[in-house]
Each structure stands twice: as structure tokens, then as C-alpha cells.
Sequence to fold (163 residues):
Amino acid sequence: MKSHFVHLEYPTIHPGVARAEQVVQNVRDMRAGFNGPRSLSALLLAAVVAAMVVVADQMMDTWADGHLLAAWVALWAVGVAALGLFAGASRDLAGKFLARMDAWSASLAQRRSDERMWAMAQTDARLMAELRSAMSREDEASLSVSPAQSHAAKIIRERLNYI
Fold:
């Protein structure tokens, strides 16, 4: 008896899927190149420079009838000077703005987490007992801590009761 074997070579990955995965990876790589403060500062800088160029154009519009080349040179000089003047300030402003937005987002997430925990504690007696036990331990520990730490603990307790 004679056996016949068929050897077929099929690719294990579809070429279209490979291309789609490559596109997704390229988009991720491009997005990683845009960090927050640098992109935001570039956007702010472009807005400030555009505003200054528009103002300079309006001021030179009446004067540029016979001196078009001089007006364009002055307009570009204002644009380049604005780029140099406001680059550092816009970078600092963008960094501060993103830091504040991160802090706000973290506080919002913490508040939502506290609200969910309190809602669960309202229906679960074990969780409520655990929270009360933790608060009582905190009260006992606050007797031996500084006034600032006890004030912070009081704010946290009031926040838990408020939620």
C-alpha cells in the first residue's frame, strides 16, 4: 500500500491583517512622539504668533501702499520675534496647565472611587463595619499625631460622611 502526503505551505498570518497591525503600530508610534506639554506649548505659541501677525498686518495695511516689501519684512520680523519671545512662556504655561488637569483628574477619580465605596458600604454590613473600624483606629492614632495630621484626618472623615 502506498501513502500519499500533500504538503501545502500556507501563510499563518493574513497579509491584510499584517498591514492593519502595522498601521496601528505606526499610529501608536506617532502618538508617542507628541508629548503633552510640548504639543500644547507649540499650539499656544502658534496662536500667540498668529494674533501678533494679524495685529501687525492691520497696523501696516494703511502704510503699505507703496512699500509692500518693507511691510512683509516687518511682518515676518514680528512673527519671528514673537516666536523667540513667547516660546519659553508658552512651554511653562502648557506644563502648568497639564499638571493642574492631571491633579484635577486624579481628585475626580478619587472622589468617584470614594462614592462607589460608600455606596457599596451602605448595602454591605461587613464593609461598613470595616470602614467604621478603620475610622476608629484613625481616631485613636490621631491622639498621638500633630495637629495638622489630625485636621487632615478630620477632613477625610467628614468627606466620607458627606458622600
Notes: Residues 15-100 form one domain. The CA atoms of residues 38 and 45 lie 10 Å apart. The chain is about 85% helix and 0% strand.
